[in-house]
Design brief:
The structure is a homodimer. Chain A is of the alpha+beta class and about 210 residues long. In chain A, about 15% of the residues lie in helices and about 35% in strands. The first copy, chain A, is built from three helices and 13 strands. In chain A, the strands form four sheets. A five-stranded mixed beta sheet of chain A has the order 7-4-10-9-13, sandwiched between helices. The longest helix of chain A is centred in the last third of the chain and has 14 residues, at about 180-195. Chain A is globular. Chain A starts with about 25 loop residues before the first strand and ends with a strand. The mean pLDDT of chain A is about 90. At the A-B interface, strand 2, strand 3, strand 5, strand 6 and strand 9 of A face strand 2, strand 3, strand 5, strand 6 and strand 9 of B.
Chain lengths: ~210, ~210
């Protein structure tokens, strides 16, 4: 390929299918590992050139993350040991969707189970993809306000501490390398942009 | 657990090992799936309560991402079809570490191979963990300046478009749901904070 300067825009093409030259098409698909929590698939795909290749990836049910804002403006946070990275991580509350469960129902359930908080108002900020190279996972980002504290109900074998922190404390923790969980950093960026008025949220009232 | 209000600080404990009550200890570890690109392990662990549980996770060699800044301030971006999520994604250049490869060497190689750009100055911003629930992956975040364009050298079977975009265009794309790749959003947050003067970078000159 010649060393031409890149075009200007995110998607400047008038082509109705500008990604056709990048897309891969499924030829076959099989489950190559079925674990207790994770399943892995391997698909044979047709590349844009017409050649074939294999793609391995984890099948994930999807998840939600909750940016829960206390009346004093602090955020409800968790500390949890994450075995794959052998570290205790600072995170926003989050969890996987149960079968057939909607995003808001999952957000409400995970916030209550893990932290004991229930919220009066909810807003769906958007979605994010944490592992586009090897997992199907998509995480919905929810904001919660009007919090009241109840008893929490952790799953069997789940251990986590709940604490509160300001946006500034959490941003400083990112800068200093103490907070490295990507979903939580993305949640902080949404929080900052929303508080600045740049990224609006549409709130819905619980039970309304 | 009683519904006590959470403590104030990210880590307020004077305990020399405040995470001991959260930590899990490896009892056994085995590779349960060895694919062409991914390996999965399943470990038996001892929980904080003394009970045992299993943990399944993908073993990943680590990766780098490059926030490459053009002389006009725009960023070098990629569009790439990501099969697991069945979408073309907007991303900062990134790639996996080769065996024994350091972060800067990998950043330099991936930027050049995928986009054709070489940089005069590099700065390591930090690391992030994209998949703390089920992969060991850690991504180093590098910034690059003083770019010059050469020929790119894509890997066999790698297809991607290179384009340039402003920070504002990319932030708008996050807000509008067009840019959902977490590593790229984290890179944008670092870029914003660095340009505001809040998160400083230490630059090193290539070849110096």
């Amino acid at each position: 390929m010649s060393a031409t300067p890149p075009p200007t825009h995110i998607d400047a093409s008038p082509d109705p299918d500008p990604d056709a030259h990048l897309r891969e098409h499924t030829l076959t698909s099989q489950t190559v590992y079925q674990g207790n929590f994770l399943a892995m698939r391997r698909d044979e795909v047709r590349l844009p050139t017409g050649q074939t290749a294999s793609r391995e990836y984890v099948v994930h049910p999807g998840a939600v993350m909750v940016v829960a804002i206390l009346p004093d403006g602090r955020l409800v946070m968790e500390r949890q040991y994450r075995y794959p990275v052998r570290q205790t991580m600072i995170e926003f509350p989050a969890g996987k969707l149960d079968a057939g469960e909607g995003g808001l129902a999952c957000a409400r359930r995970e916030l209550w189970e893990e932290t004991g908080y229930k919220a009066e108002r909810w807003a769906r900020a958007g979605v994010m993809h944490p592992v586009i190279g090897y997992a199907t996972e998509v995480i919905e980002i929810w904001f919660a306000e009007g919090l009241s504290l109840h008893e929490r109900h952790l799953d069997e074998g789940e251990f986590l501490d709940v604490f509160a922190a300001t946006q500034q404390e959490l941003e400083d923790a990112v800068r200093d390398g103490q907070l490295t969980d990507v979903k939580t950093i993305v949640g902080l960026m949404w929080l900052q942009k929303w508080r600045e008025g740049a990224w609006p949220l549409t709130w819905q009232t619980e039970g309304a």
